[in-house]
Each structure stands twice: as structure tokens, then as C-alpha cells.
């Protein structure tokens, strides 16, 4: 179905729009500049969020924005120089945070 000259994504079952995702990275991800590198990667995307060291040795990355931007950044982390530090990555969609701006290291 076409709506105003734009194909209606709902009819195709595509998930477009804003999303939030929490990704836990396990491996040698603390003490190696992982969070700072994630912030640098974030500068190439229109997203907001944060990267946080966790007590269990993981780094948690929260990303929020347009689905394509969030998925693009997640993929970029996985193919960047950071890939050598990552043993496992687990992500899931979560509730968005209204008013969140920029990307922070926590």
C-alpha cells in the first residue's frame, strides 16, 4: 500500500522508527579504552546513549535513535578494532529514555 507516495512499512512488517537497545560486551573490554572508542564511533551516527563499565567486567552500551542508526552503530562496533577485545555480545531492545541527548561515558 502506498501512503502519500511513501510505501507503508507496516504493511511489509518492517520495524522502522526510534528504538533503544542495551548491549552487553564481554571479553577484555575494561581498561583498554573500549568505552572511549565506542564514543568515537558514536560520533559517526545520529544516536544518543552511554557506555558503562559493569562490576562483572562487562561494558554495557545503551543506544537510542533511529533503528537504522542503532543497528549501524552496533555493526560498526563489531567490525572495528574493538572486535579483537570482544568475546561475546548480547543485545536486546529496551524501553527508550525520553530526553536523552548525546553519547556519554559513565
Automatic annotation (TrEMBL):
The active site is at residues 35, 53. This is acylphosphatase. It comes from Verrucomicrobia subdivision 6 bacterium BACL9 MAG-120507-bin52. It catalyses: an acyl phosphate + H2O = a carboxylate + phosphate + H(+). It comes from the Bacteria. Its EC number is 3.6.1.7. Pfam families: Acylphosphatase. It is an enzyme of class 3 (hydrolase). Transmembrane segments: none annotated. Residues 20-106 form the Acylphosphatase-like domain. Signal peptide: none annotated. SUPFAM superfamilies: Acylphosphatase/BLUF domain-like (SSF54975). Keywords: Hydrolase. Belongs to the acylphosphatase family. GO terms for molecular function: acylphosphatase activity.
Amino acid at each position: 500500500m502506498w501512503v502519500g507516495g511513501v510505501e507503508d512499512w507496516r504493511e511489509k512488517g518492517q520495524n522502522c522508527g526510534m528504538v533503544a537497545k542495551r548491549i552487553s560486551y564481554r571479553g577484555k573490554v575494561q581498561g583498554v579504552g573500549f568505552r572511549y572508542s565506542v564514543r568515537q564511533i558514536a560520533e559517526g551516527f545520529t544516536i544518543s546513549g552511554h557506555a558503562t563499565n559493569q562490576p562483572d567486567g562487562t561494558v554495557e552500551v545503551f543506544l537510542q535513535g533511529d533503528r537504522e542508526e542503532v543497528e549501524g552503530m552496533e555493526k560498526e562496533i563489531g567490525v572495528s578494532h574493538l572486535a579483537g577485545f570482544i568475546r561475546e555480545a548480547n543485545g536486546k531492545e529496551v524501553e527508550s529514555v525520553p530526553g536523552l541527548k548525546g553519547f556519554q561515558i559513565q
